[in-house]
Design goal:
The chain is α/β, with parallel strands linked by helices and about 220 residues long. It has a single domain, classed as TIM Barrel. Helices cover about 35% and strands about 15% of the residues. The strands form two sheets. Strands 2, 3, 4, 7, 8 and 9 form a six-stranded parallel beta sheet that branches. The protein has a three-stranded parallel beta sheet with strand order 1-6-5, with helices on one face. The longest helix is centred in the middle third of the chain and has 19 residues.
Length: about 220
């Protein structure tokens, strides 16, 4: 798929589905745990569930070995890749030049590794953002700033019952669900998470599907 050029425009911050829906977007960030990234890749392969990953290139040694397995899923539209910056540092106090470098370097790696651009989607590290960081990002074509309204709470290690409790609380229609490929607890809970979504008749989708964006246009 040809990589489209940047399409600068006004920034839009989103944290939930744009209207009434049974859709839910599972968005998984970071990825410094090799076991976790591998587990998520295996899960999407066997389940067919769409997921949006937002990896940091600083962890490329973890992600790159799975590129050959992820590329066909990306081409099929089951997996989407968003931008989470190169180093996972806060953008709020960074210079404009640093913000641009963080986004452009990460997307260069994403393009090279996965054959796709992450534009127009940016997940700010830690969720730290303001109107200025949004504007700089949007000037590079990152016009969709994605936050969340539900979380597994697993940026670090959690006990299984705690993570499953968060899943039960937040897996709801219209949710943008935040998770992380950082700690292995979630790997033993995929079937329970899937069962919760099925019981509630939730339809997992990528951010592209939820918001009508396209990898063909970026």
């Amino acid at each position: 798929m040809p990589i489209p050029p940047p399409r600068p425009g006004p920034a839009t911050v989103v944290s939930s589905a744009p209207g009434p829906t049974q859709s839910i977007a599972l968005t998984i960030d970071d990825g410094y745990c090799e076991e976790c990234v591998g587990g998520y890749v295996a899960f999407v392969e066997r389940s067919g569930i769409p997921i949006t990953f937002s990896p940091n290139a600083i962890y490329q040694k973890v992600w790159t070995p799975y590129a050959d397995r992820l590329r066909p899923l990306i081409e099929a539209g089951q997996v989407q890749i968003g931008n989470h910056t190169y180093h996972h540092d806060s953008l709020v106090k960074a210079s404009d030049a640093t913000i641009r470098s963080e986004l452009e370097r990460n997307d260069e790696w994403i393009q090279h590794t996965f054959g796709i651009t992450s534009r127009p989607w940016l997940r700010p590290p830690f969720g730290y953002r303001n109107a200025h960081t949004d504007s700089v990002a949007a000037g590079l074509g990152y016009t969709k700033i994605v936050m969340w309204n539900g979380s597994f709470g697993d940026s670090g290690l959690l006990a299984a019952d705690v993570l499953l409790g968060e899943a039960d609380k937040w897996l709801r229609a219209g949710t943008i669900m935040l998770g992380h490929a950082n700690a292995p607890t979630v790997l033993g809970l995929f079937d329970q998470i899937r069962a919760i979504m099925a019981e509630r008749r939730l339809q997992p989708v990528t951010l592209d599907t939820m918001f009508g964006t396209s990898r063909a246009t970026g």
